[in-house]
Design goal:
two-stranded antiparallel ribbon; mainly alpha; about 575 residues; globular
Length: about 575
């Protein structure tokens, strides 16, 4: 077997083996059980006492969401002010300037909602102060927000009848202190010992092998790179992200970062089984997500390893596969696995340039973000899957002529309407955004308010359309990666993607938490012979079918205009 494929298989198996005990640990954190990280309790108590928050106060789903949305608004205001005035603030050894208001608007929203779409270059766009107080801080709290929202869903499913979905502040703080911080310490230490910088010094001058004088950026990068992957964030300290030799020095760090970014999304699936005492349900969910993941990853690997057909037509051999835009130290297999997994789980970090991926790989990257529930991001992956699950329960109930039920609660019109609206939201944001940008480039290509001439698309035709489609898909999915043939740092892209970012993040959180709260408040119905078994393989197949049909109907025409057309053109 190809050694690169062995490396990919080893990386995934290692991730699952680590995710199972981590899932059990996370369930104990949510359940308030005694665990080794209880030494953080005094710090947590100090925070609550200082802030005047009562962590034991019960919250219904409306109070929970109010706390979640309010604190995010505070982070937005503070982050925006720091970015637009960063040039006047300390810890700026390289003299980086202030951000423009439109870029600051896009950046703070992007990191606040766990997307990390970067319309700036990491080394030159922010200072050490804003890297730490805005970028790093938001990476922690945005990941914790998604996990905390999922904990509310868990609490709603666990109780037979309740209005309490847990205290937002209590779960949020423990998610940071007991889950994210310990994992980041481990990953950052591994990166430091492999050459990733962790200092506050400015640029260093070196002479390359060719004799060129080059300025190399440094800074406290290791900690930021750890949370960018542990929290499925994805934003790079350096502009080249994890393709940069200081951000991802070697194959070992590449495997470490891959494991880190997939670890919590898979662990949360097992945590669901442990916390609800429904392990069979978690196995079914894991099985559906894994089948979906393999359907995207395997064709991508085949496409990248087979090389570029356009080069083959020229009679040029490609023994190592398609290497354009890839680092030699990683190769096409690990790069193909990374590019697909990072879009499936909404991390969005890159160890190769997605714009150089084969058309088939680009399509599967897009599909991973469009579906956004095969593992998904920290917490939000299962929240998105829950919406599909509710729709599958509703359809299954209609098929057997019974009122749909899920875990002892009737799924009625209100819950189905919420699920339907959330399902329709993503296609609306992605396709409407792509249509508007396509209209603007055709009819107003040189509009000063949108973009300067020649700075919109570097690629014409099908690939150019894919670049615009990818930008809105990535924004809606809280992913952050991009087809970088697109010139995106201008008012048009900063503002339009900014609104897609915030709507694509919070409405899919509000919907599942609201459904969970509404169902939890209903009378519990004990299982009977006619109860729909949602932890069966049959229902798992039903849910996967629903996911495939909904996304095929929503996105196939757009994909046909972009990566599919490009694929057949190259053939």
């Amino acid at each position: 077997m190809n050694t690169e494929i062995i490396g990919v298989a080893f990386t995934y198996v290692l991730t699952v083996l680590l995710a199972i005990p981590l899932g059990k640990y996370i369930s104990k954190v949510f359940g308030g059980e005694k665990i080794w990280s209880d030494f953080m309790a005094p710090l947590e108590r100090f925070f609550f006492k200082f802030s005047g928050i009562n962590p034991k106060q019960e919250m219904n789903w409306k109070q929970f969401l109010k706390a979640l949305l309010t604190i995010n608004m505070v982070w937005f205001v503070l982050g925006f002010l720091l970015l637009v005035f960063q040039g006047f603030l300390p810890l700026n050894p390289d003299g980086n300037p202030n951000m423009t208001p439109d870029l600051a608007f896009n950046t703070v929203i992007s990191f606040m909602i766990n997307c990390d779409l970067q319309h700036y270059s990491g080394e030159a766009g922010v200072t050490y102060l804003t890297q730490l107080l805005v970028i790093n801080f938001l990476m922690f709290v945005s990941a914790a927000t998604g996990i905390t929202a999922l904990a509310a869903l868990f609490n709603g499913l666990k109780a037979k009848t309740t209005t309490n979905v847990g205290n937002f502040w209590d779960i949020f703080v423990k998610t940071n202190t007991r889950i994210l911080l310990p994992l980041c310490v481990v990953v950052s230490i591994i990166l430091i010992f492999n050459g990733t910088p962790a200092s506050y010094e400015g640029k260093d001058s070196i002479i390359t092998l060719q004799g060129d004088h080059v300025q190399i950026s440094r800074g406290p990068a290791a900690g930021m790179i750890a949370i960018k992957h542990i929290g499925t964030n994805g934003g790079g300290w350096f502009g080249a992200n994890s393709a940069h030799p200081l951000e991802n020095p070697n194959y070992f760090t590449a495997v470490t970062e891959l494991v880190a970014q997939v670890l919590i999304p898979i662990a949360m699936i097992f945590a669901l089984g442990f916390y609800l005492n429904r392990k069979k349900l978690s196995y079914v969910i894991y099985g559906v997500m894994t089948i979906g993941m393999l359907c995207l990853v395997v064709p991508s690997l085949i496409s990248e390893l087979n090389g570029n057909p356009a080069i083959e037509k020229m009679g040029i051999s490609q023994p190592t596969g398609a290497m354009e835009g890839k680092e030699v130290r990683f190769g096409p297999a690990l790069s193909g696995y990374w590019s697909t997994m990072t879009t499936i789980i909404s991390t969005g970090s890159v160890n190769s340039m997605h714009d150089s991926s084969m058309p088939a790989s680009g399509m599967f990257q897009l599909l991973g973000m469009m579906i956004n529930s095969f593992y998904g991001g920290c917490g939000v992956g299962i929240l998105n899957y829950y919406i599909y699950l509710i729709i599958a329960v509703f359809i299954s109930g209609l098929m057997v002529g019974r009122t749909p039920e899920f875990m002892g609660h009737k799924v009625e019109a209100r819950e189905v309407k919420i699920a339907a609206l959330i399902t329709l939201l993503s296609p609306l944001l992605i396709l409407a955004g792509t249509a508007i940008s396509s209209y603007v480039i055709v009819n107003h290509p040189a509009a000063d308010w949108a973009v300067k001439p020649g700075n919109w698309l570097n690629n014409p035709s099908f690939h150019g359309f894919s670049e615009m489609l990818y930008e809105y898909t990535s924004s809606n999915a809280n992913n952050g990666s991009g087809f970088e043939g697109l010139g995106d740092n201008n008012i048009f892209w900063n503002v339009t993607t900014g609104f897609v970012l915030i709507l694509g993040r919070f409405l899919p959180i509000i919907g599942p938490v609201a459904i969970a709260g509404l169902l939890a408040g209903k009378k519990y119905i004990p299982e009977s012979a006619g109860t729909l078994k949602t932890d069966s393989i049959t229902f798992g197949v039903m849910t996967l079918t629903v996911i495939i049909i909904i996304n095929a109907l929503s996105y196939f025409p757009a994909l046909a205009l972009g990566p599919i057309a490009e694929y057949f053109t190259m053939k």
